[in-house]
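User: Can you model how adenosine-5'-diphosphate sits in this protein?
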Amino acid sequence: MKMSLTKKLSIGFLLTAFISIFIAGLVSNYMISKKFSNYLIAEHKTKVDKIATVIDGLYDEQTGISTTNKAEILRYSNAEELYIQVKNATGVIVFTSSSTNLQNKTMMSSMMNDFSSIKPGQYTEDSYPLIKNNKKLGTIVFGYYGTSFLNTGALTFKTTLNHSFFVSILIALIFGLIISIFLSKQISSPLTKITDTANKMRNGDLEARSQVVSKTKEIDDLTISMNYLAETLQNQELLRKRLTSDMAHELRTPLTNLKSHVEALLDKVWEPTEDMLTSFYEEIQRLIKLVEGLNDIAKLEQTSLNLNKSKFNLSLELEKVVTSFEPLYETSGSKINSNLIPNIEVLMDKDKLKQVMYNLLSNSLKYSKINGEVLLTLKSDKDGIIIEVKDNGIGISKKDLPFIFERFYRSDESRDKNTGGAGIGLTIVKAIVEAHTGTISVNSTLGKGSTFFITFPKPILNPDK
Ligand code: ADP
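Assistant: Here's the modeled complex, given as structure tokens:
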């Protein structure tokens, strides 16, 4: 049977509270009563010693104990609930506090009934020597019950102590119950709300977000992760829809073009010219590029990239890439510059790295404006190396920025520019960078330009390690 979190937590809290209070109560009760009993026994002994000394003083070797002194000893006997007997040297009883000793007295048993929870214990008689001027003159006998040292005050104290333990267990349990219900509600109610949001998402409402604000860190983290998941799912959904329509659009345009041109040729409206055939060829090329792109992406997604790593000088390699791009930039009226720290040795897949640079630098050229300028920088810091590609081209709008590394994603601006791109260049770049345990990010302002940052961690920098 499944139990709700509130119930489970409450029972858990209560059990823990009960067991710990019960054990603590039991142990402390035992310890306190033991100490208390010892204290009372010691106290009793001191008292009896004191009375014995008093009797020593009141005894006269010649006359025994006077009537006044007898009355005084009797007072002690009553006050301390002791049976007192004084015998002289020949064993004759010269004083007794009662005709019978306590064991036979009904008074005592009736008293015990009042404290029936306490065992009367054994009746004991202790003998003390009657000493005067260092001379033994007789014997003093003190008779008492094992618990007679538990006078009324002490007994009340012990019972009150037990009662207060019982009451504190009860109060602690009530508080424990309240606190446990409160705490478990605090945990379970946000969880229920988060589950509600998850259920809404499961039923297709990807706009649902959890509004739970909690002081519990884990719950807060869960809310954040949940909302992040919703955001990602929503973006993916958006992307999937856009991808389908993009693909349809990408395929339809060249196919329609081809179809209408071929129809015109068949109907003999047009004569096949070289220009026309070249344009057919270009359209077919575009289609092939698109399909190859699909294939590349599928490969990237199916298997983790196989890297063919080798040790090489990254600074030199980047310099070569820049040199190879110079003529292309020049013909388009743009400029490419570099600022590379020398002699950075790396262990990487050289061809794949070149592909990354090729994709980024050709994008910067494709999306440049008149007098375009691109700067390739290689920097190094304590964490690793950073490659920066900065352009002053058309830039990327805020709404497109989160998606540009997604398959087939192209901004409206780039479509307008009719660059013939298929929207997979950056997807490939990202896959290669991540296969080298690097990261890629971008800063961009629409109309002003973009900067791509690639960061590779230290091990790439120290191939020998
Ligand atoms: P494409 O083949 O369309 O260039 P990419 O994956 O390389 O595909 O880039 C995806 C999109 O990112 C581009 O369509 C463009 O909108 C944007 N983009 C990439 N690089 C730049 C850049 N340097 N400047 C402006 N926009 C860029």
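A couple of observations from the model: The mean pLDDT is 82. The radius of gyration is 50 Å.
User: Helpful, thanks.
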